[in-house]
Each structure stands twice: as C-alpha cells, then as structure tokens.
C-alpha cells in the first residue's frame, strides 16, 4: 500500500551532501514528496526531512541506502503520525470583495497565520501548519474564487514527538 | 613542498609502489614531482586501462591499486573502470587532476565535473579545495576503499592545489610518516553480532531438510576462506558458489556442486531450486544467480550473511540477516550449530552427489579446437599460484564452470558490470602480485583494450595472452541463435591478424588451430619468460550450456538444447 514516510536524516554539513542524497533516491526510483535541509545547532551538521511515498519496506530500503553514504550520521524512518510536522506557506492573494475578505480571515484562523503585507487588493500571508491543513486552506479560498497570485511552500520539517 | 609532492609522499606512506597513469595538462605538477618519487609509473595507452590495471593489483593482492588521469577526457575515460570496481566491491583509489579552482564551473578547457559524474559509482569522492587537506584525504580514501564493503574512492585535485605550497606542519608530518587523523564521523563499521540471531540461524539449520550454502565474493573480501571451510565441514551442507565465489572453498569436494546461476551447473541450480533453506554467505542475490526471483524465493527460507546492511531484504527477505565481517560472524554460527546436524539431510546430499555424476560438464568435442578444449588444456597446466583473468562472454562462463583454483584471488572476472575489455588491462596490474598471470579474451573483448599491448611491451609485463578467436561476439550470437532465429546482426567480426598485431608491438606471438597445436602452445606459454600472445582459432558456433533463459526459473535450467533439469 502506498503511504507516506518521513526520513529524519542527520548529515555532515559539507558541499555535495544534498546532491548525494537526492541523486541516490532518484536512481533507486523513489518518489520524493518533499525534501528540506538546514543546519542543526551544531554548525558541522545538517538535518534533512525527506518525505517519500511507498510502503514500509521501500522506506526502510531507502534509509539503508542513505545510511551507506559516508557523510551520513543517522537515518530514522518515521510514520507521519509519529512526528510533529510543520510546513510554511507564503501566499499572495487578490481580494475583490468583502465576502472574499471574510473567507480569507476565516481560513487564516484555522492555521497559524499572519498577514505580512498589503498593497491595494493584494495581501501576502504567512501560514504555518501541517501540510494537510495548508492544503485545506487552499481549497477554502479557491472555493470562494479568491485569486492566488503567488504561492510557495517550504516543504515539511519534522521531528520525533518528545 | 607542493600539493603534488605531498600527494606522492602520502601515497608512498601508504605503501604504494606502482601507479597506473596517463599524463595530461591538469596533472603536470604531479608528473613533475614523480621524478623525485619512489613510485613506479605504468604508462597505459588509455585511461580506462589505468583503472582496470589498478583493479588488477587490488583483486590479486588485497592491496589498493591507484590510478591517475588528467581532467576532462582523461577523467571520463576512467569511468567504466571505476563503475566496474564499484559493482564488484574492489578497493581502488582513482586520482584526477582538474582545472584551476577559479575556472571550475566555467566550462574551461578539459573541465568536467568528475565528482558529479562519478557520484553513483564510487564509495566516496573528494574534491580537494586546499593542498593542506591532501594527506588526510589520501588517508581517508585508503581507509574507505578497504574497510567495510570495499569500493573505489575518487580524489579530484585542481591544478592550483597541486602547485600550492603545503604548510610546514603538514610537510613535517608527511616526512616523519605520521598518521593523519581521519575525519569520518558518519562512517560506521558493523555493530557486534546479536546472539539471538545466531541462535535463530542455528535452529533454522537444525529444522532444514534440504539446505544449501551459496557463497560469494564477500567470503574472499573478508578473508573468511578458512571460516567457510570450518562451517561446511562441520555441517556437511552442500555448497554452490557465485562467479566471484570461485576459490573461496575447495570446489572439488563431493558436496561442492558447482557455480550457480544463468550458466551454473545442472546440479547447483537443481539444489538451490529445491532447497528449503538457503544460506547466502557474502552474496547479493543478483539476478544472474536467482533467475526468476518469485520462483527463486518460493518455498524456502534464507539466512543471509553480509557486510552491507543495504543488501538485506533487497532481493530476498531473509529469516535471519547477519550483519558484519564474515570472518567474524560465520565462526559464531559454526560454534553454535549442533555437531552431527548433517545426518538430517544425508539423503538430500546423496541425491545431489548422484546428480553431479548424471549431469557432468561438457568435456568438449575431440574432433575440433573449441574454447572448452583450450580451457581444459590450460586448466591442467595451471600452477597453484597462477592467476587467470577472463574477459566477458562465452569463454568466461566456460572457464567459470571448469576452473576450481585451490586458492582465492586466482580467478578474476568482471562480474557485476560485465565489462568487455576487462581482462588485458586488469592482467597488467595482476602481474605485480608476483604470480604467473594468464589473460584470456575473446576476439571481441580483446579489441576493446588491445592498445595495452604497447604498455605490456614497454614495461615488459609478463602477461600470457590468450585470444580465443571464434570470429564472433559469441555470447550475443548464442542469444541470437536461441532467441532471435539466428538473426546474426553485427555479431560476426572481421578481425585483424592477431599474430601480426602482437608482433607489431614487439610481443612474441603465435597461433594454434588444432587441439595438438593448442596443447603445445599452452606448454610454451607456461614456461615463457615475459609477455607472449597466442591466438587460438576456435570453432565458430558453439553454445554455452547449462543455461537458464533470461527471466526464467532455475528449475528451467537447460542442460543442453533439448533437456531441462526438472524433466531430465
């Protein structure tokens, strides 16, 4: 059965590591849903959050292959529900009516959000939540015919629940 | 001391005595420094041959071969040899020059991103940004190449860092032969063995009725030959081997059933097909040994020994996976498994030994000269230390079925990548083992690296060169005959006169056309001092059997054109 798995990967913070990890997944034909990377509190380490589609066997295979790369410190395979997950969206929308403005505000209240700028009828918002709730936000505003001028997602970051 | 001098000093400190190399613009500083180094240069005629010669040294000696090429085309010419080393887990250090750091990324003359190109085919790679890093990178490269699952490591050094002066501290450490600290925090060697896994494996063996051991390259790479012998002698489990397992155990024992797989023996394939327990030792269940995977996996359990945990559950799901150096993990099982356990499968063993007599290997025709005839004569003439390097194709399989060296590292082949042109350049490196070296190629494969006759002549490398000339790309022709209605497209070859070719390079060269001439030539080659080439004109359209047609099950092994093992 196809589902999503999250790989939590700690690597050395060195040039080329991102390329080694992503090209490995490409050549083994894994479909990457999302991949984020940033430094940890240790400047010499990077932390990847990779969301892949597949079954548990495939996810474990991917983890073993990644672990084989020399610059990898650790790999954990997680089911999404075992993790705290967050993603950020920046979106610019065009509001044409008071009804649309109301819908936007209602949708914003469903997620952690703030309006970053306004220029006439163009509003740029920042939204933080799970990927699912950010998808829901989009469905809601599109249903109200709110035009999305620009939309960017960060990809998921995740950590094991403490 | 320059970066180039530091590189050579670091290599010397790692006991490197030869380097297989070809000069060019981006490695000129290294070549300039070579005149002050103890390292002998072997001047190949194509960089691919440098990579294979380095492999030949590694494969035959347990050392780490080193090759060197310039940037751009020099570096890309190494690629096939590096990929071959990766698929066969051969330790190797490949060094390339690159353009000045300021020019990297500018599409400069002879610039290629060799680190990027090689990403999927190396165990690890380095782009050296600072000359001071060179000795540490060399130390790490040798450690990575040899430890765990071995493999090739690439070091790409821009020319500016070859020219740069290293710090006094680094120079002093190099001159005093001090060790450079490795900076490999993520590199993990296998953990200690889990005792529960050993007990489970011993229990599975106790419950088995028809067990088989498949052993492979991992046994040899882990130097676990004596440990394998102890295990097989205690358990009396029938054993088969992969192409790279040849020499891992005494293949002439009664319960040694033959090579497994697409051209495995009838008995080996039969045994694995009908086994209820397969113990894979240092193998990766490659498609060439499993045949149709779903049938291979059905009705049997697996115990899998390997150094690389990513091999576990890749092709087959094992009941027990034993992760570690086989020389450490296998003795634990040998100790735990009950003595006399082999009584349980006595009948199975007797049946298999009977099958061996029923399905002998084709002795070859006596009325004409064929590959099998030459190989039989060669096998009889081989000394215990002789090293045989085959190329790829029919002769490789005929030899693999028939050669049972008493020691490991005596039968060398390009297994995973299956590179035509492997034998001749790899044999050059193998001569540095100090043992007699025989290179066997077909007429097709030989011409993929025949330029190396010049290297062999220039350095007087004592390679005994056998060309089995059937004027065809024999294995492809066999497939065209059996599966494509004899539609021989581009498999017949119009060849040069190989004797004249050898002579043109100054290598004593001869020809044999009959079984009698062949036998005399093998005897001549055996006692010949220095390089010698003999072309054997063999029959054109012979086929390799047994054979499992691609995608079919081991149960469908064709013993010959008309008989399959499960119907015979």
Commentary on this structure:
With 162 residues, chain A is an alpha+beta fold. Helix content of chain A is 30%, strand content 46%. In chain A, strands 5, 6, 7, 8 and 9 form a 5-stranded antiparallel sheet that branches. In chain A, strands 2-3-1-4 form a 4-stranded antiparallel sheet, with helices on one face. In chain A, a hairpin with a 5-residue loop joins strand 2 and strand 3. Chain B contains 24 helices and 18 strands. In chain B, helix 1 crosses helix 2, helix 3 runs parallel beside helix 4 and helix 3 crosses helix 19. The model of chain B has no long low-confidence stretch (mean pLDDT 96). By secondary structure, chain B is of the alpha/beta class. A 6-stranded parallel sheet of chain B has the order 2-1-3-4-6-5, with helices on both faces. A 6-stranded parallel sheet of chain B has the order 9-8-7-10-11-12, with helices on both faces. Helices cover 38% and strands 15% of the residues of chain B. Chain B is globular, with a radius of gyration of 24 Å. The chains are: A alpha+beta (162), B alpha/beta (568). Chains A and B meet through helix 1 and helix 2 of A and loops of B.
């Amino acid at each position: 059965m196809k589902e999503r798995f999250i790989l939590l990967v700690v690597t050395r913070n060195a040039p080329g590591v991102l390329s080694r990890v992503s090209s490995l997944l490409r050549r083994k034909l894994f479909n990457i849903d999302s991949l984020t990377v940033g430094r940890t509190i240790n400047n010499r380490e990077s932390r990847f959050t990779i969301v892949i589609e597949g079954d548990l066997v495939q996810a474990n295979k991917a983890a073993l292959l990644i672990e084989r790369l020399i610059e990898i410190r650790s790999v954990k395979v997680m089911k999404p529900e075992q993790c705290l997950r967050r993603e950020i969206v920046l979106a610019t929308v065009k509001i044409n009516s008071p009804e649309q403005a109301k819908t936007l505000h209602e949708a914003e209240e469903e997620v952690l959000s703030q309006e970053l700028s306004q220029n006439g009828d163009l509003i740029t918002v920042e939204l933080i939540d799970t990927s699912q709730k950010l998808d829901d936000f989009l469905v809601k505003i599109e249903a109200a015919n709110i035009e999305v001028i620009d939309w960017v997602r960060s990809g998921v970051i995740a950590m094991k629940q403490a | 001391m320059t970066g180039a001098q530091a590189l050579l000093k670091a290599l010397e400190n790692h006991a490197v005595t030869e380097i297989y190399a070809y000069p060019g613009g981006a490695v000129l500083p290294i070549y300039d420094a070579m005149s002050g180094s103890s390292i002998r240069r072997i001047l190949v005629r194509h960089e691919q041959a440098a990579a294979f010669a380095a492999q030949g040294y590694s494969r035959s000696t347990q050392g780490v071969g080193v090759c060197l090429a310039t940037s751009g085309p020099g570096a890309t010419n190494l690629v096939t040899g590096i990929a071959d080393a990766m698929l066969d887990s051969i330790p190797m250090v490949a060094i390339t020059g690159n353009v000045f750091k300021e020019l990297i990324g500018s599409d400069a003359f002879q610039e290629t991103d060799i680190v990027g190109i090689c990403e999927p085919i190396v165990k690890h790679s380095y782009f050296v940004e600072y000359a001071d890093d060179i000795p540490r990178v060399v130390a790490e490269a040798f450690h990575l190449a040899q430890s765990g699952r071995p493999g090739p490591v690439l070091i790409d050094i821009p020319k500016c860092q070859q020219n740069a002066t290293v710090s006094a501290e680094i120079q002093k450490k190099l001159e005093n032969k001090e060790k450079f600290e490795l900076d490999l925090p993520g590199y993990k060697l296998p953990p200690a063995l889990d005792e529960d896994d050993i007990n489970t494996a011993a229990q599975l063996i106790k419950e088995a009725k028809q067990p088989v051991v498949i052993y492979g390259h991992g046994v040899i790479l882990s130097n676990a030959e004596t440990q394998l012998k102890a295990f097989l002698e205690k358990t009396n489990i029938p054993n088969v081997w992969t192409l790279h397992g040849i020499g891992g155990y005494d293949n002439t024992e009664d319960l040694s059933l033959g090579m497994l797989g697409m051209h495995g023996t009838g008995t080996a394939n039969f045994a694995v097909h009908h086994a209820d327990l397969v113990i894979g030792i240092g193998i990766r269940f490659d498609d060439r040994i499993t045949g149709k995977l779903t049938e291979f996996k059905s009705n049997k359990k697996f115990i899998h020994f390997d150094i690389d945990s990513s091999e576990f559950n890749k092709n087959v799901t094992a009941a027990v996976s034993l992760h570690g150096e086989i020389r450490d993990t296998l003795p634990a099982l040998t100790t735990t498994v009950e003595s006399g356990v082999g009584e349980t499968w006595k009948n199975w063993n007797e049946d298999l030994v009977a099958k061996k007599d029923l399905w002998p290997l084709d002795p070859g025709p006596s009325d004409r000269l064929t590959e099998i005839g030459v190989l039989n004569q060669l096998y009889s003439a081989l000394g215990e230390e002789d090293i045989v390097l085959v190329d790829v194709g029919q002769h490789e399989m005929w030899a693999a079925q028939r050669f049972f060296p008493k020691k490991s590292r005596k039968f060398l082949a390009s297994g995973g990548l299956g590179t035509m042109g492997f034998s001749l350049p790899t044999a050059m490196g193998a001569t540095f083992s100090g043992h007699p070296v025989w290179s066997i190629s077909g007429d097709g494969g030989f011409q993929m690296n025949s330029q190396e006759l010049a290297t062999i002549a220039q350095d007087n490398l004592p390679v005994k060169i056998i060309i089995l000339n059937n004027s065809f790309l024999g294995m492809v022709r066999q497939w065209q005959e059996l599966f494509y209605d004899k539609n021989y497209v581009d498999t017949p070859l119009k060849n040069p006169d190989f004797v004249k070719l050898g002579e043109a390079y100054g290598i004593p060269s001869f020809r044999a056309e009959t079984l009698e001439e062949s036998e005399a030539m093998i005897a001549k080659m055996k006692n010949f001092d220095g390089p010698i080439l003999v072309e054997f004109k063999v029959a054109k359209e012979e086929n390799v059997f047994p054979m499992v047609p691609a995608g079919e099950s081991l149960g469908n092994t064709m013993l010959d054109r008309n008989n399959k093992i499960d119907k015979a």
